[in-house]
Specification:
Structural class: alpha+beta
Largest sheet: 7 strands, mixed
Order of helices and strands: HHEHEEHHEEEEHHHHEEEEE
Number of strands: 12
Number of helices: 9
Oligomer: single chain
Strand order of the largest sheet: 1-2-3-7-6-5-4
Helix content: 25-40%
Strand content: 25-35%
Radius of gyration: 18 Å
Length: 274
């Protein structure tokens, strides 16, 4: 039985339902909800390249080629979760605009904190966890010219009503959903509205106050201070204790030999079961 058969019409994501009472200023002026897309990021990027103004929101009930970081596939079953992309046109230089992935992780964690029974945790750079299992991921794409940002596509996938029994064997042990942790189904419309609001608030904060307040909130949600991690980067692997997310959006590690290193790109794995 499909999710829509279990909840006929009640939990369908529609632009009308999401916009009702949304109350945002910058995001959500246009909301497109599609029954199925290859990828919300691809559709949003095509709109942005065609001149679509900032604030457009693209949602799919299912994705056939959902994108994760580093070319990975994002599992996207129909009518269970949230797959959404936003078009942003920051009045910032490209280096600052690139921090929208970290900003979005804070917005997701803030949204989850309102609904989940356990405290969400951010794992650098783009994963959000509940009880150590991945519940959300972010994929941002930046288009720029020298010194000027053209647009940023912020794609977010959140496992909301995804039963672990339906997860494939290769992700079941490391993924979860809000429903699994909450013990009951999530109102997807309300969750989407909350996420749009939190993302807008953090986005305005970045433009008006800079990255420092967002870095502080990221560090609070990550709770990685002092955590031993393994950082797998393109040209080397580091093991170190996390000191902080710095003002450039990089993870600062203190290695065993006392030297300090910054993780600029790659994957970070928590050690000791964190």
């Amino acid at each position: 039985m499909s999710s829509t058969e279990q909840h006929p019409g009640r939990d369908l994501l529609t632009a009308v339902r999401i916009r009702r009472g949304l109350g945002t200023r910058r995001l959500g002026g246009r909301i497109d909800v599609h029954p199925e897309l290859e990828s919300t990021n691809r559709t949003a990027r095509a709109l942005a390249e065609a001149g679509e103004p900032e604030g457009a929101v693209v949602i799919a009930e299912a994705q056939t080629r959902g994108q994760g970081r580093l070319g990975r596939h994002w599992v996207s079953p129909a009518h269970l979760n949230l797959y959404v992309s936003f078009i942003l046109r920051p009045r910032l230089d490209p280096a600052e605009s690139a921090k929208t992935t970290l900003l979005a992780a804070v917005a997701v964690a803030d949204t989850l904190k309102e609904q989940a029974p356990c405290v969400p945790r951010i794992k650098w750079p783009n994963d959000v966890l509940l009880r150590g299992r991945k519940v959300a991921g972010i994929l941002s794409e930046l288009a720029c010219e020298p010194g000027r940002t053209l647009f940023v596509i912020v794609g977010i996938g959140v496992n909301l009503n995804f039963p672990r029994a339906l997860m494939s064997a290769d992700i079941r042990d490391r993924a979860t959903s809000v429903m699994e942790e909450l013990g009951s189904a999530v109102d997807r419309v309300r969750f989407t509205q909350s996420l749009v609001r939190h993302l807008e608030n953090r986005y305005i904060e970045l433009e008006e106050r800079g990255f420092a307040p967002i870095a502080d909130r990221w560090n609070e949600h990550a709770r990685m201070d002092g955590q031993w991690v393994r950082a797998r980067m393109p040209e080397e692997e580091l093991v170190g204790r996390v000191r902080e997310l710095d003002g450039d959006g990089f993870l600062v590690l203190e290695c065993r030999d006392g030297r300090t290193e910054r993780v600029v790109s790659g994957d970070v794995f928590l050690m000791g079961g964190g």
